[in-house]
Amino acid sequence: MHAKASGRPPQRRPGVRGVLALLAATAALACGPPSPRAIAFNEDACAYCKMTISDPRFGGEVVTRTGRVETFDSIDCMTAWIHGADTASIAGIYVLDFEHPGALVDVKAAGFLRGISVQAPMGNAIAAFATPGAAEGSRGVLGGSVVAWGDLLAGTGDAHTHTTP
Hints:
Order of helices and strands: HEEHEEEEHEH
Strand order of the largest sheet: 2-1-3-4
Helix content: 25-40%
Largest sheet: 4 strands, antiparallel
Shape: globular
């Protein structure tokens, strides 16, 4: 039993190597590094204080190694939450850029102003910016002092307070 010659090359079915390569590529794409997601303002709740996140200039997210995203209405809440978390489970920390509301920035690149003149959701009035230079550039208008992420993380702890507008 021979196949008829049709003038076309014979179709090849993928071999075991091809199937394994396809499966490996699919798994690599599906298991990429956990990443932040857009905050649903006026819907998402803060993982720490449970208030609804409404101001796109303040807050952020912590993404765990399993891909879970914890959202926060302020940097105060986020740092307080981190103090009680297993830091080995954290894959990434992102803050909202004050100058570009709703845009998330990795804390490793961000700059911060503490004690700004703008009412923030929580007591310490901390704003994040895309870079330390952007934070310094906004200091003349917003006031406050430029601080590094490590200083915020080390100094917030029990200083978490809520204020009413």
